[in-house]
Each structure stands twice: as C-alpha cells, then as structure tokens.
Amino acid sequence: MLTKEAAQHVVYEIMKLYPDAVPTMHYQNPFQLLMVVILSAQATDESVAKVKERLFKRYPNPQAVSESSPEEIESYIKTIGLYRNKAKYIYKSSHQLLETFDGKVPNTREELQSLTGIGPKSANILLNVAFNQDAFAVDTHVARVCKHHKIVEENATPKQIEERITEIIPAKYWGRAHQAMISFGREICSPRNPKCHEYPQLYENLEEIKLMD
Questions:
Q1: Is 126 exposed, middle or buried (0-12, 13-18, 19+ CB in 10 A)?
Q2: Shortest CA distance to 138 belongs to which of 170, 181, 192, 197?
Q3: Full-model pTM
Q4: N or C: more exposed end of the chain, with fewer CB within 10 A?
Q5: Active site residue 88
Q6: Phi-psi bin for 120: left (phi > 0), alpha (psi -120 to 50), beta?
Q7: Helix %, strand %, coil % of the chain (to 5)
Q8: What's the first-to-final CA gap in the chain, in angstroms?
Q9: What is the pLDDT of residues 83-135, one digit of tens each?
Q10: Sequence-ordered list of residues with C-beta below 8 angstroms from that of 147, at least 6 positions apart, any chain
C-alpha cells in the first residue's frame, strides 16, 4: 500500500485530470436527489435518466409518494434493476420524512442513514451534493481506483476506503476527489483493459517520497 504522501500525490493527479468533474445526477431539490440515489444502486446513470423525469413529475414531494403505493411506483421504475425493492425504499423513506422530518430531507449523516434505503454511500452523496457538506462517498468506481493504485489494501472495505481518503486529503477536496475518481474509473481505470499506464504522471516526481509502507 502506498504511503500517505504517495497516495495523496496519486489522488491529486487524478483530480488534475478532471478539474471540472461534477455530479451526473440532475435534480432540483434534495428529495429528487434522494430518489435518484436510491434508484442508482447497482444501476447505470443511463437507466436512471430514462425514468427519473416521469418519476419526478408524478411524485414531486414525499406527500405525493405517501398517497401512492409501492406497486404504482414500480410501474415508473420497472426498467431498473431491483425495482421492487427500490419502490419500497422510496415509499417507506417518504413516510419517514413526513413522520419524523416534517417532509424535508435531513442534512445530518445519522438522520439520513435512519431512512430506509440510505446507507453510508448514499448519505455521503446527499450531504456533499445536496447540502454542500464535506463528505466522501465510496462507490464501485472509487473502490476500484483506490485498490488498483494501492491507495488502500486490496481487501479494504468501503468504510476503510472512506477513512483512508479523508485522512490523506483535506476535507475541502473530498467532494471533488469523489467526482474525479468516478470519471477516472469510468473512462480510464475500467474493470477490463484499464488504461492507467497511459498516465505516468500519477507516479512521476515521487523520487523524494517513500512509496510503500
């Protein structure tokens, strides 16, 4: 595993490759983002994009969802994997928002993770994207990049990856690092035929840095 200094260098170089990386999740309010985050689990951005506008129009707020049913929600998202579970999550979390949070999406990690269908990754996305709080979310792209480049051990858990990144770079960069790593993972450090070797700058100028722990 790379030392803190070497790992920090690699992360910064990835960020330089994608200085303008932004979330691909388009939304108009935190509730819309909440639904998108639930839909995005084990699904592509393209599949979510195909259903979200109709979903947003039919369910503009938690109240509209609560007056519906999981079965009706399913009809809007059935082209997405695990759609039955996700319909239940949207339905149950909407009820929780109304019963506990006055119909508003909360802006703390603990409260977000109390909602059905929202785990650590989803909570961090909501904190960073919807509420502009410093948070680092670990998805499959981020995990792959971190393991491939030995920023973390090969068997590192998402929690361990989050702890490692938030340890080696300042909080103000967490959101940008997350977005840059997603882009890097999709376009360069792919599961098959990664092209990381085409970017030697990731490991240049490390002569003065102890590389490995």
A1: buried
A2: 181
A3: 0.89
A4: C
A5: no
A6: alpha
A7: 60, 0, 40
A8: 6
A9: 999 999 999 999 999 999 999 999 999 999 999 999 999 999 999 999 999 99
A10: 153, 154, 156
Show the domains of the chain with their CATH numbers.
4-21+137-202 (1.10.1670.10), 30-130 (1.10.340.30)
Contact 122, 67 (CB under 8 A): no
The question of whether 139 is a catalytic residue gets the answer yes
Whether residue 162 contacts residue 1, with contact meaning beta carbons closer than 8 Å, is answered with no
Q: How many residues does the chain have?
A: 213
**Could you give phi then psi for residue 199, rounded to 5 degrees?**
-125, 70
HEC secondary structure over 19-62: CCCCCCCCCCCHHHHHHHHHHHCCCCHHHHHHHHHHHHHHCCCH
Q: How far apart are CA 11 and CA 88, in angstroms?
A: 37
| Among 139, 159, 210, 213, the one annotated catalytic | 139
Please tell me which residue in 45, 88, 104, 121 is annotated as part of the active site: 121
Nearest alpha-carbon partner for 144 in 180, 190, 110: 190
Which two tokens mark 172? 């103000």
